[in-house]
Amino acid sequence: MRNKIYTLVGLVLATLMMTSCLKDDDNDDNGSSFRDTAITGFTLGQLKVKRDTLTKSGKDSTFYAKYEAKNLRFYIDQAQGLVYNVDSLPYGTDVAHVLATITTKNSGTVTILSQQGDKQTYFSPNDSIDFTSPRSFRIYSNARDTYRDYKISVNVHKQKGNVFSWVSMQGNSNFGAFTAMKAVSTKDKIFVFGTDGTQTKGYVTAQNDGNHWALLSQSFSAHAYQSVLVKENKLFILDSGRILSSTDGNAWTQVGTNTNLKQLVAASSSELFALTTAGSLVRSQDNGATWNVETLDDNASLLPVSNINYALLSNNDADDMSRVLLVGTTASGNKTVTWTRLSYKNRPTADDTWNYVENAATKFLLPAYRHLTVVNYDGAALAMGVDNSGKFGSMLLSRDAGIVWNSDKDFSYPLNAQPANTFTATVDADAYIWMISGSKVWRGRLNRVGWKLNQERAAE
C-alpha cells in the first residue's frame, strides 16, 4: 500500500512539472502566452498561372490557366513565427490576388498588418490578399489579451521550369590538345581525361568551381581514357592490363591485372563491366580483381566496339536494383546498338542476362553520333553528340531503357555552342550537366530538375 501511495505521489508531481514546462514554453521573452495565438494550418485556394502559347499564325501569345493549390504544403515554424512553402508555385503564378484559409488554435482572431504602418484589418478567407511579398499576420487570443505575429511567404519560382540554364565557364586550353576525351564526376569533383595520341592525361576541378583545373599527377597509356569509370564515387581505369582505382585522381592503387581486357565499359553500385580482346562482355564483383563472362541473349557480334557509353538508371520498383544501359557503335561504325541489364546493390552475386534492345522503328533509334555521350538525367538516358552534318545532334531521351529515343524541346545545348574536334559530358551530384567541347566548358541544368532535387533534399 505504501508503494502505491509513493507511486501516486510521483505521478502527480510529474504531471505538475510537465504543466509548468508547457506554461514556460508557451511564453515568449515578454511573458506573452502563445497557447491561444498559434496558426495551425494555412492553405491556398484556386490560383491563376500565366502560360505562353502560339497563335494559329505562329505569333507569341499568353493565357491564364487555373491552378488548384489546395494541396500545396505550407510549413509552420512556430519558434520563429514563419509560414512558407518549400515547393514553390509554378513560374507565372499570380500571387497578387490570393484566397487563403488560415486555421488557428482555439479559433483565435486573425488580422493582417498593413505593409505600411501599423494598421490592421480583420482577415477573411473571402478577401483577396497580395502575397507578392511576405505578409505579416497577427493572431489574438479569444480574450484579446495576448497576440502573436507571423510572417507568411508564398514562394513562386523565378524561372521557367522547362528552361535549360547554361553558364559558360572559363575555358581550358589544355583540353584543346586532346584528340579525344571523357568526363566523369564523383561526389564533389569533375574529371576530364583525354589523349593527345601518345598518352592519357587527366584534369580535375571542384564541383563548385569549374574555372580552375589541376593536372593530375599520373599519366596513362594513350587509350586509357576510354576506360575511366566511377563506381560509388571511386575512379577506375584500365591501363595496359592493370586495373587501377583512386579516390582523388592522383593516388592510384592497383586492384587487379588482366591482359585479356580491352576496355572498362560500365559500372553499377556493386559491379564493373568490361569488354575483352576476344569480344566478350565480362563482369567483376570485387572491384576488378577477378572477372567472369556475362550471359547475352543475342550474338556477341552485336556488342559495341567503339563510341561506348553507359548510363546507370534507377529502378522505381526496388531501391537496391538499377538498370545498366550500354550503348555504342558496331564494328561497321554506322549503327548504334543498345544493351541493358539489371544490377542489384544488396545482392552482388545475383546473375542477370544482358538483353539486346531491338526497335524496328528507325525514326526512334539512337543515331550514330560522333563523340556520342550518354548520361543519366531527369530519370532517363540522355544522349548527346555531333551529327553527320558536323552540328550538334538533337539531345535525345530514352525513358524506356533504350527502346525509343526522342527529342525534347526542353533540352537544348548552350546558346552559340559549336562542336569542336572533341566532345564529352558528365552529370554532377547537383544535377548539373558539364559539357566540354574542345577547350570550352559549360555547366547547365534544367530548372525543374534542380527544383526537384532541392525538394527531395529538404524532405530528408
From TrEMBL:
One Pfam family hit: DUF6242
Highest taxon in the source lineage: Bacteria
Keyword annotations of the record: Signal
InterPro entries on file: DUF6242_C, DUF6242_N, WD40/YVTN_repeat-like_dom_sf
Transmembrane domains' residue ranges: none
Residues of the signal peptide: 1-23
Organism: Prevotella vespertina
Gene3D superfamilies: YVTN repeat-like/Quinoprotein amine dehydrogenase
Phylogenetic classification of the source organism: Bacteria, Pseudomonadati, Bacteroidota, Bacteroidia, Bacteroidales
Protein name (Swiss-Prot/TrEMBL): Exo-alpha-sialidase
Domain DUF6242 positions: 42-154, 161-453
